[in-house]
């Protein structure tokens, strides 16, 4: 029962609901303050929700959500017994809980439910817990009875006075602080204005004040930087440094602006969903012409009369997906009734539309033993296709052609030929278990090498898609995901490599857990991830993105196809990209494809000194990207709307060569100028991602925070734990990561005797 909803309760009708979810791996490790990232639809956005409670014995977690955007609206449509598509956690740092006497927990809105887990933790630690909760009126109040189980006192305020104190939670807090001098800490969870008000209230009393920030997130695992907040004048990342911070140090004004940045786009997404729902309720199709049936390629008549080759050549993957997307996914599919063997036709077509050939094949095979034959010889026009509702006003879905494609494509994926240097697939020895943490190029290399030699390999991926940087970092125009990456992954699955998605090393599981499960060796290939910024004033303005966030939104979230996919992206008119590597080129070329009128790469050296591949630089220039060299940003300035509007640049020149022979850039005196820019992308590198490293103190790190390994074997300071790729070298190339994976795989194979 993975991610199954065991209980659903509406706390406030049509507004707020509680879900109890079967998620034993998350429940076993969840602590107060942790959150999960979830996704409810293949085209959906990843959103964070705080864990309101966890029961390790039952294997359940509880979340409470406000129906605010499209994702929570779709979540609200799920019922008891339904599965949540993706659920990843527990994430974030846990609440620091220690014996401190009296703790006041202040909550508002759905933050009351999130605060419940924290109050429970403080109660179990032996602290006296005072809960102060508030809402606009009594009927909007949450979790009062649940809090009474753990809190010594529960104080209630309502704006309209319909229950408890008439007024704000801060008024009750002020009163309590004035008469109780022994308060050790105040914890606030709720809307940003409320948490800001709590911090202002407690500051004169000198009481430690902790706030939980549920900021915008894309990955939630310390990779993109979307969740950055200013705390004490420094940039922090809510997903790895938080989500809890010193309330007296948080820049709440900046946080509020960032949370509102995508409101317009979210509104567009909700409006489109409303249009679709209305059309469905009225029994109408969307207001656009029906897409025509994708024609089947054939041999030319003049050619085929001279051979016995098959006339129909079959769909390509793109053609098959295009045809599959025509399916309306009817709730009462007549096509299934027309099929003599009752193939679950909408289900296999839905899987194919997501390019999941293996899943589609398994669905067909559940009732049809000969899909490749049936796809060619069945009279679909009078059976399944004859019942298709699209046939009433156009052409039915080409069900037979899709069935044929799935069967052919599945059998064409010969893993041994694709990955192994051996003519036959080996028998997998379940005793030779190896785990790979991360599914990027280094881990895939390890998995392929060892699986082709008979090892049982399991790959753990924190995201919902497999491939690591190959999927979230490199754009489709440089690396086709389904033609190349998916083919490699599918081939590994043919070699019995198991892939576990939404599993975060250091959070969902630890290295010792893997050895306890029988693994003989572990490979760490989690990448570097955490983005670097330039410490330039104005860098946290809305409109300034890390390259990780920008590319992850576009590549992983398919934001280029918003609002058909739910992850939004800002399409700037005048875009500036900072850096000269391949990532900078990817970001700049992506911006051009998203419709930017002007795209400039700002680099403090010359084009010849750019570390990007020459071909990438040439392609960027050919596509209209302007290379603004010998320039460096001094400050990002807001426009009239408060978002990014201008960048102030310092003209640079190259000085004398240093000891290595490289000429260092230096400012040209009194040569500062400005450029209009409404979108800036920072592509100046990454640093080590702390999510796994902070939870594995046995791993020796170098001075830059990357894992130290034996250069001859790839082994870390922990016996039989290996590492490779960016988490060892820092940001580097795919081929170097693959080389590191192969080095480690050879040593593991030697030790395992394969």
Question: What would you say about this model in short?
Answer:
This protein has 754 residues and is an alpha/beta fold.
Write up this protein.
The structure is a single chain. With 754 residues, this protein is of the alpha/beta class. Helices cover 31% and strands 23% of the residues. It contains 26 helices and 30 strands. A 7-stranded mixed sheet has the order 10-9-8-7-11-12-15, sandwiched between helices. It has a 6-stranded antiparallel sheet with strand order 1-2-5-4-3-6. Strand 3 (35-39) and strand 4 (47-55) form a beta hairpin. Helix 5 runs parallel beside helix 6 (192-202). The two termini are 35 Å apart.
Q: Rg to the nearest angstrom?
A: 28 Å
Overall mean confidence score, pLDDT: 88
User: Counting H and I runs of at least 4 residues, what is the number of helices?
Assistant: 26
**DSSP strand tally:** 30
Low-confidence stretches: none
- The geometry reads as globular
Structural class: alpha/beta
The description of the largest β-sheet is: 7 strands, mixed
Helical fraction equals 25-40%
CA distance, first residue to last residue: 35 Å
Instruction: Please list the strands of the largest sheet in the order they lie side by side.
Output: 10-9-8-7-11-12-15
The fraction of residues in strands falls at: 15-25%
């Amino acid at each position: 029962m993975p991610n199954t909803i065991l209980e659903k309760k509406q706390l406030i009708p049509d507004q707020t609901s509680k879900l109890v979810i079967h998620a034993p791996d998350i429940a076993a490790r969840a602590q107060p303050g942790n959150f999960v990232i979830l996704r409810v639809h293949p085209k959906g956005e990843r959103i964070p929700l705080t864990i309101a409670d966890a029961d390790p014995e039952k294997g359940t977690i509880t979340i409470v959500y406000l129906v605010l955007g499209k994702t929570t609206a779709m979540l609200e449509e799920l019922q008891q017994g339904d599965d949540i598509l993706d659920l990843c956690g527990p994430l974030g740092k846990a609440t620091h809980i220690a014996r401190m006497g009296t703790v006041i927990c202040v909550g508002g809105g759905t933050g009351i439910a999130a605060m419940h887990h924290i109050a429970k933790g403080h109660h179990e630690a032996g602290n006296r817990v005072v809960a102060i909760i508030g809402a606009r009126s009594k009927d909007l109040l949450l979790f009062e009875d649940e809090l009474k189980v753990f809190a010594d006192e529960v104080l209630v305020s309502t704006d309209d006075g319909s229950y408890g104190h008439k007024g704000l939670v801060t008024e009750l807090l002020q009163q309590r602080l004035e008469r109780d001098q022994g308060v050790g800490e105040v914890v606030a969870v709720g809307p940003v204005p409320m948490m800001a008000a709590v911090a202002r209230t407690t500051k004169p009393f000198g009481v430690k004040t902790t706030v939980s920030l549920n900021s915008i997130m894309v990955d939630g695992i310390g990779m993109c930087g979307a969740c950055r907040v200013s705390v004490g004048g420094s940039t922090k990342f809510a997903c790895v440094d938080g989500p809890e911070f010193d309330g007296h140090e948080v820049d709440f004004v900046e946080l509020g602006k960032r949370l509102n940045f995508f409101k317009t786009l979210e509104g567009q997404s909700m409006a489109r969903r409303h249009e679709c729902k209305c059309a469905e309720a009225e029994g109408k199709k969307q207001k656009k012409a029906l897409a025509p049936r994708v024609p089947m390629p054939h041999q030319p008549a003049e050619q085929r009369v001279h051979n016995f080759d098959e006339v129909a050549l079959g769909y390509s993957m793109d053609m098959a997906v295009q045809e599959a997307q025509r399916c309306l996914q009817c709730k009462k599919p007549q096509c299934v009734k027309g099929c003599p063997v009752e193939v679950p036709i909408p289900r296999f077509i839905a899987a194919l539309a997501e390019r999941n050939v293996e899943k589609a094949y398994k669905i067909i095979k559940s009732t049809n033993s000969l899909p490749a034959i049936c796809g060619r010889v069945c009279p679909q026009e009078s059976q399944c296709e004859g019942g298709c509702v699209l046939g009433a006003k156009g052409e039915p879905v080409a069900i037979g052609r899709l069935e044929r494609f799935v069967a052919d494509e599945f059998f064409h994926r010969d893993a041994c030929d694709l990955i192994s240097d051996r003519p036959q697939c080996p028998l997998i020895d379940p005793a030779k278990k190896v785990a790979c943490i991360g599914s990027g190029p280094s881990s895939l290399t390890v998995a392929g090498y060892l699986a082709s030699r008979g090892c049982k390999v399991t790959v753990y991926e924190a995201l919902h898609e497999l491939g690591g940087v190959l999927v979230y970092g490199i754009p489709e125009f440089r690396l086709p995901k389904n033609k190349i990456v998916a083919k490699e992954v599918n081939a590994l699955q043919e070699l019995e490599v198991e892939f576990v998605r939404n599993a975060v090393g250091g959070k969902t599981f630890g290295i010792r857990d893997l050895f306890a499960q029988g693994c003989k060796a572990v490979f760490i290939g989690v990448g570097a991830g955490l983005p670097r910024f330039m410490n330039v004033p104005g860098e946290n303005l809305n409109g300034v993105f890390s390259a990780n966030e920008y590319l992850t939104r576009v590549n992983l979230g398919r934001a280029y196809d918003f609002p058909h996919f739910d992850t939004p992206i800002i399409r700037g008119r005048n875009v500036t990209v900072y850096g000269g590597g391949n990532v900078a080129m990817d970001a700049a070329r992506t911006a051009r494809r998203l419709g930017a009128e002007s795209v400039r790469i700002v680099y403090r050296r010359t084009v010849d000194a750019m570390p990007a591949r020459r071909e990438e630089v040439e392609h960027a220039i050919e596509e209209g990207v302007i290379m603004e060299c010998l320039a460096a940003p001094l400050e990002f300035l807001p426009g009239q709307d408060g978002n990014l509007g201008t960048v102030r640049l310092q003209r640079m020149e190259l000085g004398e060569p240093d000891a290595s022979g490289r000429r260092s850039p230096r400012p040209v005196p009194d040569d500062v100028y400005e450029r209009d820019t409404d979108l800036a992308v920072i592509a100046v590198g990454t640093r080590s991602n702390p999510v796994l490293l902070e939870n594995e103190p046995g791993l020796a790190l170098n001075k830059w925070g990357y894992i130290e390994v034996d250069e001859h074997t790839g082994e870390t300071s922990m016996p039989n734990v290996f590492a490779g790729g960016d988490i060892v070298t820092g940001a580097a190339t795919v081929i170097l990561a693959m080389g590191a994976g192969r080095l480690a795989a050879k040593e593991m194979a030697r030790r395992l005797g394969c």
